């Protein structure tokens, strides 16, 4: 009995050790698995590494998933790190495709990088339907979210305190909103919500609230108003023609004059084709391919 | 190995072969029970090891003091100070206990001593129903009913605040406080109360001066249980507390608790980053809190046995 107990205890303790290693194992799994071939009718095999903007992770994740379903020999990995890291990775070749949620700067273009706009990301600014305010400029929005304008009367509304609803740190929508309105790390929020739906719900139930959400999530919602920004309504058309201000491009960054690997080229073609439009839309962005 | 077979005194009448089979079966079943018992131990050990292993790196990198006492949490700027979460969790728990404990204890006195049997049965089943409501439902009702109510009542811009979290937590800890205190009150020997009444004390004097003090370790257990539940609650809190990493400067400030800090950012933190590691470190801090509370609980339970 004693010996059995000792054995079992050893076993238990070693299990504990194994459990301790769990974190590292998952870390290893998320690194790109390369050269995995299962041999399908398509000759494509290998891996595609994409890296960059965390805001693009959702779009890229959906595209990668579909592409991997269609081409079982290819592994597409989507890694974060931010737009800067994406541009850099495309430049030094550590990634097949760099992901940036902004246009390339002139000096980046001069260093031999090319951008392809994959999609546009429109962010709607929403208020409760009871709110008489229907239009704000980008500057007004920024001053509301930084707490400078604390009362709706400051922007032509009724005499009520403003409640700013935002998203939690790490959210791509928050990143996009704050970088476009130039309020990065300066927003004073009344509530941080963990999903687009929760923001819409919170704004719907509070007449004093203002919030932001992806364009696609706001369409057709009752009880809230998507503000016009500088007189321009937030619709797919105004995002596409560039007149709606709170938008940014999702860009694939490649190196000029350097051919992509076959699987990377196939993924690039798929992502920028009209066939990917529905997937991009499902991820909440506005597709640009025709 | 000793054999405990045939404890009932019956001597095996079958062949020796059959006896061996029965003995083996008996041992096998015992082994299975033993393994089931070990499963819990394995889980606790595994979780402890994992939390310590994954929680320590960030604390080491940031520095224990900076991590625990840093007053700014801004994960996208690389600032990882959990003091706002720590204080919010403590303030929320303290508020919930302050609100929930008196109500719970009075309810327990009512149930154990003064309630007519029929009323007590109804209330008791309502209390156990309250205990069974999932925390997400508490959060949902809190978000839809309580948060707008707080907003209107106090004329705020937004009702999601420390106060809303305290109220929700106070209701959530009620069932355990009521049922544990009630059991403790019922266990007080009748002679104590009879003696008090015989000496001329009124019923209420008896309950509050004799019964409750006699049941104090049970009541303390109930309070500690409530604290444990309040400090570990995430789902309901995330929906009503506002979830902004502020210091709990007022009851109306939107705050973030230790639990909700982990829940709301885990999705985004990339594997292996300092950000993710510090979320694990928050888990470790929370774990130590719960261990402390468990230690206190054991202390009270032991004292109760000695009483």
Descriptive account of the structure:
The complex is a heterodimer of chains A (290) and B (307). Chain A has helices spanning 2-29, 57-70, 83-92, 106-110, 138-145, 172-180, 196-204, 215-218, 236-240, 262-272, 277-282; strands spanning 46-52, 74-79, 97-100, 113-128, 135-136, 163-167, 191-193, 209-214, 224-226, 228-229, 247-255, 286-287. Chain A starts with a helix and ends with a strand. Chain A has 2 domains: 46-120 and 248-287, Periplasmic binding protein-like II (D-Maltodextrin-Binding Protein, domain 2, 3-Layer(aba) Sandwich); 122-247, Periplasmic binding protein-like II (D-Maltodextrin-Binding Protein, domain 2, 3-Layer(aba) Sandwich). Helices cover 38% and strands 22% of the residues of chain A. Chain A is elongated. Chain B has 307 residues and is mainly α. Chain B has 2 domains: 16-62; 69-306, MetI-like (MetI-like fold, Orthogonal Bundle), CATH 1.10.3720.10. Chain B has a two-stranded antiparallel sheet with strand order 1-2. The interface between A and B is large, with 42 and 44 residues.
């Amino acid at each position: 009995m004693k010996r059995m107990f000792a054995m079992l205890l050893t076993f238990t303790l070693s299990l504990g050790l194994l459990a301790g290693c769990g974190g590292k194992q998952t870390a290893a799994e998320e690194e790109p698995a390369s050269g995995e071939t299962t041999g399908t009718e398509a000759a494509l095999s290998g891996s595609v590494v994409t890296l960059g903007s965390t805001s693009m992770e959702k779009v890229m994740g959906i595209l990668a998933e579909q592409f991997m379903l269609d081409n079982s020999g290819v592994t597409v990995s989507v890694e974060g790190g931010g737009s800067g890291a994406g541009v850099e990775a495309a430049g030094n070749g550590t990634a097949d495709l760099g992901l940036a949620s902004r246009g390339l700067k002139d000096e980046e273009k001069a260093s031999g990088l090319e951008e392809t706009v994959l999609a546009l990301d429109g962010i709607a600014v929403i208020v409760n339907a009871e709110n008489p305010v229907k239009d704000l400029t980008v500057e007004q929005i920024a001053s509301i979210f930084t707490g400078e304008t604390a009362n709706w009367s400051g922007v032509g509304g009724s005499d009520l305190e403003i409640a700013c609803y935002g998203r939690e740190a790490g959210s791509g929508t928050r990143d996009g909103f704050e970088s476009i309105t130039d309020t990065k790390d300066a927003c004073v929020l009344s509530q941080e919500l963990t999903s687009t739906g929760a923001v819409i719900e919170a704004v719907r139930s509070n007449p004093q609230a203002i919030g932001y959400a992806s364009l696609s999530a706001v369409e057709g919602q009752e009880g809230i108003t998507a503000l016009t920004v500088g007189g321009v309504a937030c619709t797919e058309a105004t995002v596409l023609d560039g007149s709606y201000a709170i938008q940014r491009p999702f860009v694939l960054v490649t190196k000029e004059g350097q051919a992509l690997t076959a699987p990377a080229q196939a993924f690039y073609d798929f992502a920028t084709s009209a066939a990917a439009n529905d997937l991009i839309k499902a991820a909440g962005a506005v597709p640009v391919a025709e | 190995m000793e054999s405990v077979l045939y404890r009932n005194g019956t001597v095996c009448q079958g062949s020796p072969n059959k006896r061996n089979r029965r003995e083996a079966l008996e041992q096998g079943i015992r082994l299975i029970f033993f393994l089931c018992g070990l499963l819990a131990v394995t889980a606790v050990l595994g979780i402890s090891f994992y939390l310590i292993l994954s929680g320590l790196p960030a604390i080491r990198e940031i520095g224990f003091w900076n991590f625990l006492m840093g007053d700014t949490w801004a994960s996208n700027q690389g600032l990882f100070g959990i003091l706002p979460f720590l204080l919010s969790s403590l303030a929320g728990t303290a508020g919930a206990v302050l609100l929930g404990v008196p109500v719970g204890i009075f309810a327990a006195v009512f149930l154990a001593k003064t309630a007519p049997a029929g009323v007590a049965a109804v209330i008791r089943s309502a209390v156990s129903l309250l205990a069974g409501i999932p925390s997400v439902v508490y959060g949902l009702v809190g978000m839809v009913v309580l948060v707008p109510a707080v907003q209107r009542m106090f004329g705020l811009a937004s009702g999601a605040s420390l106060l809303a979290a305290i109220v929700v937590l106070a209701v959530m800890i009620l069932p355990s406080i009521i049922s544990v205190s009630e059991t403790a009150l019922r266990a007080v020997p009748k002679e104590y109360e009879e003696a008090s009444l015989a000496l001329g004390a009124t019923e209420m004097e008896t309950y509050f001066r004799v019964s409750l003090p006699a049941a104090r370790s049970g009541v303390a257990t109930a309070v500690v249980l409530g604290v444990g539940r309040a400090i570990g609650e995430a789902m309901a809190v995330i929906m009503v507390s506002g979830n902004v990493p502020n210091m709990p400067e007022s009851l109306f400030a939107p705050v973030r608790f230790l639990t909700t800090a982990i829940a709301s950012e885990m999705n985004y933190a990339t594997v292996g980053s300092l950000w993710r590691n510090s979320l694990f470190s928050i888990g470790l801090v929370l774990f130590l809190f719960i261990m402390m509370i468990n230690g206190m609980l054991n202390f009270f339970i032991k004292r109760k046995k000695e009483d």
